[in-house]
Amino acid sequence: MSASAPNGGGDRAGVGGKAPFRVGLLGHGTVGGAFAVLLGERADEIERFNGRRPVISGVLTRTQGDFERILSEADLLVELIGGVEPAREYLLAAMRAGKDVVSANKQLLSQHGEELFETARERGVRLRFEAAVAGAVPVVRLLEESLSATPIERIHGIVNGTTNFILTEMTAGASYEDALAQAQRSGYAEADPSDDVSGRDAAAKMAILARLAFGTPVHLDDVRYEGIEQLRAEDMEYARELGLGLKLIGTAERRHGGVSVRVHPAFLYGGHPLASVVGPFNAVTVESEAITEITMSGPGAGGRQTASAVLGDVVSVMTGGARPPAPPLALPLIEDVKSAFYLYLDVVDHPGVLAAVTHALGAQEVSIKSVVQRGLGENARLVMVTHPVLESSMHAAVEEMAGFDFVRSPPRTIRVIEEEFV
Ligand SMILES: NC(=O)c1ccc[n+]([C@@H]2O[C@H](COP(=O)([O-])OP(=O)(O)OC[C@H]3O[C@@H](n4cnc5c(N)ncnc54)[C@H](OP(=O)(O)O)[C@@H]3O)[C@@H](O)[C@H]2O)c1
Fold first, then answer.
1. Which pLDDT score, from 0 to 100, does residue 356 have?
2. How far is the CA of 107 from the centre of ligand 1 (A)?
């Protein structure tokens, strides 16, 4: 499509002679292309209830369109380029020119959110970004609007569909390598999946959700994250045996007057609302004393699915439903929190092994909830689940155990989320 061939039914005046609502589109790839098609399909309906017809007044890609011209001719800009630059520069320029903006860019928002929010506030324009977190799942709107008067205690999210697909395949018996290859064949994983499998993509989304839920600035660099590369088929077997689900979970929660934001694999008790989320789906659970718990799930990616969230943002701006972002609060970020752990030890079975392990744990005040021993002799495995303990204490105990001569490979730990929110 060319910059001079607007979509959405042309520039004709809408119902009652109202001028069309002109959307400048930056990026025409997977999401941008699907957005242009969807806007064309939905333009009649949007015009019917809104009085103005949305039209695409210009398109910018690497090979077509002129940014200044598109900006001057648009009522609102939609940024679907991705990455930090030039997306940041374009969004700032648009807001400084008094234009409302919509973006799906989690990288940008998790690294330069405050600069963008402050510019939106200063200029009194709207900055909408529903599609930046969990694709079509409307969690941004839930936090910004429906729950804006509700003190949120905690958010748990499966916010990366690629890793959830891989973990689902591994639960069915596939190895990590086969599951990743299957995700790439099915189009769920990029050729370079490192941001997904390392947890960095989920960390960016959790930084954005934490800012919305708690009002405090959270940069991507503030989020501690671990990925799924170190998980093994045995972990899945133990998960099945213990009746637990194994997921890559993002958590943002209030802790000791501050906020903790992290991403890591976690065992979930069978009844947890996120335990049953399978395949490339995303889901988010929001917990608060006032509402107990709300869980939403749906497709976290895909051109048309993401485009529908972007178009929802455009309509929200057209109908005046969105407000500029609130100014930030200053809450401390808490790094050391308590978690229960699963501990996997590959050991040579001889007398005194269990005593040495329990001594190392006891010295850090880690108390054991359950122990399973498998195999004998050179091929023994000790699997334990602990009660909640400070993560720093668990790491210290693991460091000591890694030095024992009977431990044959580095000990592995996975957090366990087993308590229900009440
Ligand atoms: N794909 C998904 O399922 C999904 C889901 C949720 C959120 N998102 C977010 O949506 C955004 C877009 O993702 P996508 O998958 O649609 O990306 P994409 O397919 O790679 O498309 C990117 C578009 O931006 C254009 N572009 C790149 N650099 C540019 C530059 N310097 N100047 C002008 N145009 C430039 C490209 O131009 P050319 O056409 O000339 O290459 C292309 O049209 C990203 O922020 C992504 O994180 C995507």
1. 94
2. 12
